[in-house]
Prior knowledge:
Elements: E1 2-6, H1 11-23, E2 28-33, E3 49-52, H2 58-65, E4 70-73, H3 80-85, H4 87-108, E5 111-117, H5 140-159, E6 163-168, E7 170-172, H6 185-194, E8 199-202, E9 208-209, E10 211-213, H7 214-226, E11 235-237, E12 243-244, H8 245-253, E13 262-265, H9 280-285, H10 294-307
Parallel strand pairs: 1-2, 1-4, 2-3, 4-5, 5-6, 6-11, 7-10, 8-13
Antiparallel strand pairs: 9-12
Helix pairs in contact: 1-7, 2-4, 4-5, 6-10
Bound molecules: nicotinamide-adenine-dinucleotide.
Amino acid sequence: MLVLVTGGAGFIGSTVVDRLLRELPGASVRVLDDLSTGRRANLAGADAELIVGSVTDRGTVASAMAGVDAVLHLAAIGSVPLSIDDPVRCHAVNVTGTVEVLQAAREAGAQVVFASSSAVYGTNPATPISEDEWTAPLSPYAASKLAAEAYVLAYGRSYGLPTLAFRFFNVYGPRQAADHPYAAVIPKFTDAGLRGRPLPIHGDGQQTRDFVHVDTVARILCRAVAERTGHPAPVNLAGGASISMLALVDQLSAVLPEPPRVRHEPPRAGDVRHSLADVRRLRELFPGVTQVPLADGLARTADWFRSQCVGAPR
Length: 314
Ligand code: NAD
């Protein structure tokens, strides 16, 4: 079996590549990545072929898809602020790039597993939120993910491809970037905590998020490929539990060398107050799937940040 992972040099993609090589006996893995945010170093030690190129380039996608049985399509512009600065580029990569991948997958007869986002729910306040709830994207990024998942599922219906569109909630773990202004909260807090800096909390800290460890995501994606799972509607991929920012700081203190200090900052416009996934569909499709508990996940994340010499000043 040959599996193509687009965006496979990124945080989630490279973790999935490692798992596919470990868990799927005899599988070969190919990565298509333009290295815009991904890093070659994430693939060090992985016996995977790397094609450096863009999902928007039809010829590159066609050669990357040759002989492929399943594609995990994770390549995207993943930043909301970048999508607000350049919505046309966001559309080109996240939507047109997805159609290019789908078209090539259709010709190869490959299964398509896609990384959509909980951002598609936008202003919908339902908690827990099920996939049948209305969507209301707040940014070009969220709109691009909604459009792309619609294409993925439409290709499934139109051409009989097994397709699966996961809506990832807040994924965290080793290899996640902490060093840019819009970094996700767990890498940002872990990095700041290990450097003895205050953890920036926007607003009162009572806002909640549903975190899922990257190894849980990799486990489920790997199983989706092994079982060639398809589903006609989107599937939430989340922990199915929520935690407030203040409670997260408490949990993090257990894995940091000294109790972290918190710095309150003004609330961010457009931030969702509460986020919690209904994960019943995920559990039906993948019965018995186990989650990495938050305490373990935070410990593994802190270990990784320590191994990256975070003691050094930045
Ligand atoms: P990431 O930035 O580490 O990974 C994205 C990868 O795609 C990078 O390796 C990047 O170089 C590559 N890429 C970008 N544009 C490309 C292009 N035109 N052609 C080929 N490769 C390209 O981010 P991540 O957190 O690993 O995200 C992976 C996927 O999961 C993305 O689609 C993202 O939108 C989605 N997602 C992530 C989260 C999360 O919490 N991290 C939540 C929801 C959805």
